[in-house]
Amino acid sequence: MDISNYLYLSVILFSIGALGVLVRRNAIVIFMCVELMLNAANLALVTFSRIHGNLDVQVASVFTIVVAACEVVFGLAIIVTIYRSRRSASVDDASLLKN
Amino acid sequence: MLHNSFHLALTVGRTATPEAVQFWILAPLAVIAALGILLLKKAVHSALLMAWVMVTLAIFYIAEDALFLGIVQIVVYTGAVMMLFLFILMLVGVDSSESFVENLKGQRIPSIVAAIGLAGLLISLLGRATVGSPAAGLGVANADGNVQGLAKLLFTQYVWAFEVVSALLITAALGAMVLAHSQKVRSPFAQRDLAIARFRKDSLGDAAGLPAPGVYARHNAVDVPALLPDGSPAPTSVSQTLRSRGDIITSAGFALEAIEEQED
Asked: What is the ipTM of this complex?
């Protein structure tokens, strides 16, 4: 097996995540799909680190994980706030500003 | 030329057979799980599949000589992040499954086309890319150990990024507290308020409290309405929650006539 297969897997997972963000409407599931995209990017970073034989890319990956954790904290807090006022976690229901 | 463009040509070095076996077992499962996140209706199922994908990726990291990241992946993602997700799911309503009715008309097909296009574009890019030399592997970089190597970089070259990220984490914690904080609109009902409300009602019928549930001597469970003196069940004797759930045993069988019939 070639090492680049990890990159192809990462691309596939990234695209599935992107599709999920576009198609799903439950805010929490959309959020999970964003996490999936971040994870796919991490897999690519780790594979690049292996291909080039240096650890700088893994440091970048650590930062990605930290930023993703912050993002989850904020995102879920926002979802809870929206849910509290709307009683719904669907992104389609939050269309008060539409008209 | 056409043949070349579809030939996936990025060869950067072979892996050992065990790793290949592991990859070909776990990678399809990860892709199937990711598709499951996409397709399953209930958010809880998506969350569980997400946890599976993350564990799979952690195994891949460890297989790729990124031991620290593999462990961090398990601790931070499957441990903390997914727990947070499940926690919020339980808070928001675990039964809330979304409808698949499209609000934006005809948005789904273009999205699928766009996603497939993105995947195709990236894969063809990867196929055309050349690194120039075979994969270096992390043997040299990890000579002192992966954690030690990462620590050396993190606390020397990237120490400012590290500090900035720590500031970001603190900001996130504060932000979450601010967002999750809710101001109370009114003070909670105390026993005194409830007592006053009971006596100020139109009738003093239940000023002494609602009747207790259960038909004494025959049945005393909380889901059986008490019987009034005339033998009819008293609906107020059963808790509102049980009533709205429909979890009430009818007490008609315990009514006076029924008992008399049984005794005859």
From this structure: 0.90
